[in-house]
């Protein structure tokens, strides 16, 4: 009897939440105590009395109302919110909603089949006043994704697909007749078809077999498929692109400003295939300089309402993986018709500026043009001109592999534009722009696309020259339309998050750095000082990464709030329409307004902006995954080598170590550190040895060896060798 009573009390204790949840899930329906008891699956008298009692308590608290005798309905208040689910790797999640100050914890039992990124309707409640609020998913409004990549485990009558995504807490059940032609252990792409209410796992079907785990093409295709990114064009889209007339006609030239006789050249990476921008230069009779920023006129070929435009919009961006580019446009346009190749006439959309010696913009002109590129430079060649002030391009950096003399007018133009670019950059920095020159990890690949070496790419003066004039064009186009108060596609960047700044301050103080957080201007200047001071130090990559994480994400929007990181009131993306759809929209809108068009629908373009931002984020994730994959692949061949690394993260389960010579990051499990028994101290953000009191903390140098290099999970595990003391 005693046992029974205890069981009852435990049940009774939960009735408050149960009753309220049932009424919450169907806010327009009234329930009596019998209906509630049936849903909870209790039928004894004591439980029914508890339900009646709970209904009275909730009514008295003003949370529910009696709509007719014995029937109760929830009083709708602002406890219902719409937002997204952000899963952790521990089967629980957080509810993220703009209307709420903080993210709200969702225990696993309250997820109700919601997955990471899903748009959901949630109810927020306090189970006990002493605890933080919790959320429960009442309705899944929109799935973030319905296709997943994983490894298939085939049983006799069914199969399961398990993903490597730590945030995906369930495997996917595949009925026998939906296995397609997959073999046990294959990497597959599955579509989630259904998730019955009482089923532990969702039901799915295999829609594509990607190959065997660990094989190069399999893993690259898996990365693209994971983020819903394509890796080839539909046949009909290729066919449409191939029949476009890409010839340069006198009729079209007559409609444009003809700049074919003005000195024009391109500066791009050595291995670039698409050249979407060129610069022209001439000295004007008044002593000022006319500098033209000429951008491939993609919108001339990419017509609205075509299958080619639909495909480009859907992709929204080119994706740059370590060993390949997945272009937004078919090759016939991206590498040929739209590419501003040397010694060819091309249609362009131009922003032409008259600048004085102080780099003040005296005049601007925007419109369609035709140009002739006189020369193609690699960044290394332009850098040589800037550094040596000479016209000699040495063989080891020359695109032709032979030493040559650059034409004198181009050398003079490069040096003058470098001078002006440096003034433009200085003005930006003084206005509060933040200087990010993060080291890029690059790989030397052999003919089988295997990494045989790692090198770092850093921006130099030649890169900054191009960057400053592209920024000028992007800013002035946005300003030109923004001041007319017409709908436009802006590139926006919100101000810094204060909490993240304090977290950054907390971490960098361990290395002896400090931030001045008094004002917006002080923050910008002290961030620039920090980024300058860490240059070349062992902690540079970690501090650069942490600083970037304090920033809001830049995005596309019709609602202009300026660009904090660049310190611009107006900013757009205009200069890369071969690889970014927002730039195509900017071109179309600019021409429409130049032709006297009235402001277009803000709502329609905001929707396109959101889509473009989403696709950009997916592409960035795929690019990061491909770098991580190549790092793991590279480290597979260096298992016996000892590496010096820097501690880049400390957690309760171990430390993350970034190898200094190649920036590869891996985990050392806490149990791998044998010289003492270590525990995590969250206040010091360190591991503390129980006996020795030795600290292992952020920035410490340690020697490690590769323990495990998992290509499928894209994870590195290290053996701890010793500290570098």
Summarize the structure.
The protein is of the alpha+beta class. The protein has six domains: 15-74, Orthogonal Bundle (Arc Repressor Mutant, subunit A), CATH 1.10.10.10; 80-142, OB fold (Dihydrolipoamide Acetyltransferase, E2P); 147-213, OB fold (Dihydrolipoamide Acetyltransferase, E2P), CATH 2.40.50.700; 237-493 and 556-623, no CATH class; 498-551, no CATH class; 638-723, Beta Barrel (OB fold (Dihydrolipoamide Acetyltransferase, E2P)), CATH 2.40.50.
Q: Give the number of domains.
A: 6
Strand order of the main beta sheet, please?
A: 13-20-19-16-15-14-21
Terminal-residue CA separation? 67 Å
Stretches with pLDDT under 50, minimum 5 residues = 1-13
What's the story with the biggest beta sheet?
A: 7 strands, mixed
Q: What is the helix tally? A: 17
Structural class: alpha+beta
Tell me the helix content: 25-40%
Cα radius of gyration in angstroms: 30 Å
- What coarse outline follows from CA principal-axis ratios? globular
Mean pLDDT across the residues is 91
What is the total tally of β strands?
A: 35
Q: Which range does the strand content fall in?
A: 25-35%
